[in-house]
Amino acid sequence: MTQVSLFIFIIEVLGTIAFAISGIRLAAAKKFDWFGAYIVGLVTAIGGGTLRDLLLGIPVFWMQSPMYLAVTFLSLMTVIVFRKALVKGMRTLFLFDAIGLALFVVVGIEKSYAAGFPAWVAVVMGIITGSFGGVTRDILINDEPLFFRKDIYATACLAGGLVYWLVQQLPGANPIVPQISCAATVIGLRVLAVHYHWSLPILKVDPKDLPEE
Predict the structure, then answer these.
(1) Do the Cβ atoms of 106 and 141 come closer than 8 Å?
(2) Of 72, 109, 198, 200, which alpha carbon lies 20 to 30 A from 155's?
């Protein structure tokens, strides 16, 4: 295993843990049982990567090894054991969601390049990998998906992908530098957006312009 592929493997595992915990934490807040919480955590962790692999026409990553199912189970046990620290408060959810989002954007971009796709496809796959699991999670727990709100979420993924591409153009850059730059951009934008209440404009429609039923 090369240095780059090992690094991608590590961040994929860390991203799985982070997203699984974010999903399980939300399921716990909704009073799901252990099995329901596990399913929510699993879907959060593998949803984006599954769609990515299907679109890229490559083997679905979690079907190649049971490790991702086991990692999600360990995440469930972690939430059960440390439930007081992990379940209470939105900061915990935000932390794990931001980390998982950033790491999965990097994984999506790297796997797209490895499959021979151009940069613009890689950026789109990075967004899908990072966000689709969270969309599915929110649907399962009957929440409005964060992806479709005014929060800086998908925009942070897009910015991270663009930073990855820009840093990649620098001559002599270590292959890991674009990955770190991308992840830092996604996390940084998410943190700044929440702290300073940044948001995208809401699409407003005058009720008078809507067609009558």
Answers:
(1) no
(2) 72
Q: What is the overall mean pLDDT for the chain?
A: 87
Q: How far apart are CA 115 and CA 53, in angstroms?
A: 10
Range name among 5-14, 58-67, 117-126, 129-138 with the lowest pLDDT average: 5-14
- Helix/strand/coil percentages in the chain, nearest 5: 75, 0, 25
**Residue 35: how many CB atoms within 10 A of its CB?**
9
Q: What is the pLDDT of residue 69?
A: 96
- CA–CA distance from 67 to each of 9, 42, 130, 135, 148 (Å)? 12, 12, 19, 23, 31
| Neighbouring residues of 56: CB distance < 8 A, sequence distance ≥ 6 | 111, 112, 115, 117, 125
Single-letter code of the amino acid located at 191: V
Q: Return the amino acid letter for 113.
A: Y
CA distance 131 to 65: 22
The one-letter code for the residue type at 29 is: A
Say whether pLDDT at 207 is over 90. Answer: no
- Confirm if 14 and 106 have CB atoms less than 8 A apart: no
Could you tell me the pTM of the whole model?
0.87
How much is the pLDDT for 95? 80
12-16, 129-133, 192-196 — most confident range: 129-133
**Rounded CA gap, 79 and 36, in Å?**
13
Query: Angle CA(152)–CA(23)–CA(44) in degrees, nearest 5?
Result: 80
